[in-house]
Backbone:
């Protein structure tokens, strides 16, 4: 159901909008976590490590797609907030065309460079073949991933966070069932898990299309909506989308590159460290999902209110969600510190005590810095909702440089323990830049509105 976020109590709206997002994000994580758990328990630690070894590359690809489609949806949300429904349909058409072109190019480039990327990641020879086929199959099926993220972003931009959730629940369950069938019955090994991911995401796309056709009158397109003329109006609209979408994709890709740098260092420490870091990162991703969900909800809230020129509502929403995320960061840090080892033990059934100990060491270090991470989700999404791209990109570059510093210096000097500080160092630097960027962006427009009243 379409939801107008420009009216009503900001925190209540954001909370109600974020709950389906949180549940949806959990099921989104199930795509990859189910792969890891099933692979780890059915095929062993080496197979588990093969998926973990290419996880940063997997997330780099996903980050770029998510950044691009979310950037396009910012324009959709702003036009919806301004009451420009014809502009909403035009935004979806332009976004679809640009997404198709970008995905085709991206798929071809990734496939051609796959072996080179895996060598740069220092993937160990004993897990190389499984790692290659897992990520290659994901890349081949990238078009369905793009379309799901695009449709889900558009639906959320119109204020509906529940519909994508329903599709994710169904698709996640199917993913688990298919992974078990492909691995256990058809003996497809690690590749079977990747095939299950692609097929289940394809189902999500079909469900989105069916539901939009039935329930979203604003997105019922006419023939003339798809009659594209390469005129000034088309180029202007395409540039408006690319102006936000491309920087967001670059920003997300920079974050992904930082993770790849760390993984390439991690891969030099052997299968035990790879398995431990893989498990710890997945658990941390689950722990931070509530904070991420509030950030994504805030982005939609900000985009709609920015389009409606209700800037003081933006400031109120940011303050409330910032305080909420601080509370969540402290809560999740306590849980991870005291029960993290038990969670890791359940996550990898065949894990040795050494693997559990290494993974828990990572959590003990990173949890001290969750407050900084929680504020990154707030200020980055607020800036993106306003269409501001400079500060998020600068923050992403700072994160990349800090992670690279940890990989080049701290890991060499202190081993994998030094590498564990790369995330926290990057979070602190990005948080400072984003918070400065937000206050520099919001203060002038709020005061300008006050002066006009």
Residues:
């Amino acid at each position: 159901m379409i939801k107008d976020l420009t009216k009503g109590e900001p925190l209540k709206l954001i909370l109600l909008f974020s709950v389906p997002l949180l549940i949806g994000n959990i099921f989104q994580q199930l795509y990859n976590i189910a792969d890891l758990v099933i692979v780890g328990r059915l095929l062993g630690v080496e197979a588990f490590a093969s998926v973990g070894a290419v996880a940063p590359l997997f997330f780099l690809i996903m980050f770029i797609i998510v950044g691009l489609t979310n950037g396009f949806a910012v324009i959709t949300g702003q036009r919806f907030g301004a009451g420009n429904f014809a502009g909403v349909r035009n935004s979806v058409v332009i976004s679809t065309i640009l997404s198709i072109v970008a995905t085709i190019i991206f798929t071809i480039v990734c496939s051609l460079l796959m072996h080179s990327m895996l060598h740069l990641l220092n993937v160990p020879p004993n897990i190389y073949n499984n790692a290659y086929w897992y990520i290659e199959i994901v890349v081949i099926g990238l078009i369905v991933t793009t379309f799901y993220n695009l449709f889900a972003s558009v639906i959320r931009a119109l204020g509906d966070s529940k519909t994508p959730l329903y599709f994710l629940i169904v698709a996640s369950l199917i993913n688990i069932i298919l992974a078990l069938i492909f691995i256990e019955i058809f003996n497809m090994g690690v590749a079977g898990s990747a095939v299950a991911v692609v097929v289940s995401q394809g189902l999500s796309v079909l469900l989105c299309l069916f539901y939009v056709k039935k329930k979203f009158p604003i997105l019922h397109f006419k023939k003339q909506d798809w009659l594209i003329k390469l005129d000034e109006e088309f180029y202007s609209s395409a540039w408006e989308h690319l102006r936000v979408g491309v920087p967001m994709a670059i920003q997300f890709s920079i974050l992904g590159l930082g993770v790849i740098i760390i993984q390439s260092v991690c891969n030099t420490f052997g299968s035990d460290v790879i398995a431990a870091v893989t498990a710890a990162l997945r658990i941390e991703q689950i722990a931070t999902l509530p904070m991420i969900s509030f950030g994504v909800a805030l982005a939609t809230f900000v985009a709609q209110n920015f389009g409606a020129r209700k800037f003081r509502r933006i400031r109120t929403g940011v303050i409330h969600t910032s305080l909420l995320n601080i509370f969540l960061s402290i809560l999740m840090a306590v849980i991870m510190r005291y029960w993290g080892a038990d969670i890791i033990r359940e996550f990898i059934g065949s894990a040795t005590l050494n693997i559990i100990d290494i993974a828990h060491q990572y959590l003990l270090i990173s949890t001290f810095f969750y407050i900084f991470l929680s504020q990154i989700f707030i200020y980055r999404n607020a800036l993106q909702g306003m269409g501001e791209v400079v500060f998020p990109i600068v923050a992403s570059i700072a994160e990349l440089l800090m992670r690279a510093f940890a990989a080049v210096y701290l890991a060499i000097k202190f081993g994998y323990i030094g590498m564990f500080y790369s995330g926290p160092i990057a979070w602190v630097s990005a948080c400072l830049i984003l918070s400065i960027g937000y206050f520099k962006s919001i203060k002038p427009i709020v005061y300008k509105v006050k002066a006009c009243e």
